[in-house]
Every structure is written in structure tokens, then in C-alpha cells.
Amino acid sequence: MNILVVGRGGREHSIVMKLAESDRVNQIFAAPGNGGIAEQATCVRIDEMDIDGLVDFAKVYKIDLTIVGPENPLLAGIANRFREENLAVFAPTKEAALLEGSKRFAKEFMLKHGIPTADYASFTNADAAKEYINEKGAPIVVKADGLAAGKGVVVAETIEQAHQAVDDMLVAKSFAEAGATIVIEEFLQGMEFSLMAFVHENNVYPMVPARDHKRAYDNDEGPNTGGMGAYAPAEDITAEHLSFATENILQKTADSLVAEERPFTGILYAGLIMTMDGPKVIEFNVRFGDPETQVVLPLLRNDLLQVITDVIEERDPHLEWENNCCAGVVLASKGYPASYNKGIPLKNLDSLAEGFVVHAGTKQSETGLVSDGGRVLLAGAKGTTLEKAAELSYQCLNSYSESSEFFYRTDIGKK
What we know:
This protein is α+β, with helices and mostly antiparallel strands. It is 29% helix and 28% strand.
């Protein structure tokens, strides 16, 4: 089969790496790809949002299956368009993708269908939002309604911080249209974890639970990012917890989407928190999580292409997982998640016999590999314990420990 992977980040590189293991793959294309992906796939200069260009490419190059990584083309209707052209695509329609595209929609959906989540209210008026905050008190969570690259969430520890977040989003328009509506949520106490599943309509096949580290700096300090590292499985999540989350969150969500005539095909991602009352939903994503994918897919024993084909054709893929742990540490550009420089030459990573490197924001230049994003790459490894996996991951980054251009957290894998 000829496969097209849409996207340019670490998630897409991880997908390409897993697909490359399959005997069923003839050729892998990536649009637009990155410097690392180019070593395992043919990168084509088509932007993720150029849906017409991607459709034309899929036709000309006889693409048998397209896998969409990032969220923006999903909300723009890439899956709808591919299906209209009778092109096979593993991705949700824009109607189903609204589960990630609008936090307000997601909260209303969960309330309507009895899916456990935090209490909330939504606002477009700053004064009304502040009155609600004054009534509820702090800590409290303020979220931009739309897509904000993982950065549109403020966990406010004081009322003043919450008011500032409201002003930033509704008055200063720090997230443009994504923050024209905001959602204010009850603060939930507990350990967060991510649970992804392969989904086709009513059929749901969960993966192993993972946990990412969203704050920029050690000890969960600094601003929220798209993720500074991750590990899997999250071993404190019991089989009972997973069964509850699968049945009462993932399966109920898939069934409810079918009932609302917006059936889901693709990867359903539930960002969950383990509360005293059991798992509750913090947010939904409608695609592989980043960086969770980079530590979950290496533990999958199955052929990824076979799994996706089975799911689409309504066969149980019989998922099998290694009895190992996997950890990954993100190397980021200094200044991320705010402004940062690009085009910084990348040193050779210290060799890792038992590890792997996933490229996120990199590109090939005339002088070699250079940085091209905030999160530059992820160094990962598997081990019999989480501590061993994390130790191996960090060995790869030794040459960057004194860098003035890049940084990374030193506590990935620690609870």
C-alpha cells in the first residue's frame, strides 16, 4: 500500500516510524514532513491545510490510505473532502472533530450524554466571566474555546490570575478567534493521564494509558506547552480505572457521536484526571496526542497499518502491547512556548543503542539539520522500568545539557 501521512511534527514522525516496520507498506509519503521524517518517507511540499493539493496528490500517486496527524485540517474538513473523492482516510469528519475544535461544544456534549467531567460555564463577556469567578473562587481553570496549540489553558491559583486570563483572552484577544468564547471550569484535583483509542463508529479499541508533562520547566513550573515529555504506561492507573474510562467515557462518546449522526473514525484521545470519584474528562482530542504518541506506539506489538485497516473494515485488531515502559524527553528551543529562534544547527545526538529520536521541529538545510520549531525533537527509550527508560532517554541529550539555544526538563517520568 502507498500511504500518505499529513503533518510535520513529532507525532507524524512517530507514525511514519511505526508504519515503516510494516511489510504491507510499499511507499510512505509525508506532507509536508520534517528533517527526520525525510529519512524514512518521501516528503512533499504540500501544506497540511492545502486540502485541494492533498486530494490531487492522493489521486496522482495512487495513495491507498491517508492518515491525518494535526487538528487544524481535521476541523477544516479534510476527511469530508477525501471521502467525497472516494479516497480512503483514517480521520474524523469536521462534524466529529468539533469535539476538539470547541471546548464549549465538548462540555455541552458531555453534559448531555452523562460523560463525567468538571462543572463549567462559558462566556463571551469579560465582566460576566469575572462575576462567575468571584462566585466560585480559586483555584479555577480558564480555557480558550477554540484551538490554541495546547496553550489556551490557564490553571489560576488566585482570583486575580483568573481575571487576568479572562482579560488576556476576551479583551486583549491573545488567542484571536480561538478565545472569542471562553470556558471556565471547576478545578479538579488528581493525577492526569491520557487514554487514546482506535475508533470506527461504535467500535473502540483503547491503547495503553500515558502521561505527559505539560509545563515548560521542572517541578511542573512555568507556562503550559504542547508537552515537554511523556511516558507510558501510566502504571498507577489500574485495570479497573481503565475499564471504567473505556466504557463510560470512550465507548459512550463514540456511541453518542453515532447517535448524533456525526460518527467518529480515527483516534479518539481523552485527557483524563483521576479524581476521588473516578476518571473525569479534562479535554478531548480527535487525533493522536503529541507527545504521547511517541511513547505509546513503540510499545505496540501489532503492525500499525494492519490495525488501522482492521478498524476501518470493522475487524477486531487484537491489540498487543510490550511488557515494557517507554519514556520520551522533548528538546525545546529557548523561549518556547513564547518567541524563539529557528535555524539553529543541531548537534549529533549521543548514540543510543536502546533508544530512538523523533523529530518535531527540524528541517534539512544546506549546512545540515537545523531547528524549525519550538519543540525540536524527542529522545525516547524503552526499559523494563520507567526509571530505566527515562535514564536511557536522557543519555541521548547529554550533548545539550549546557546548551544556550535549547532546553529540556530533567524530571520526565517522575510523578
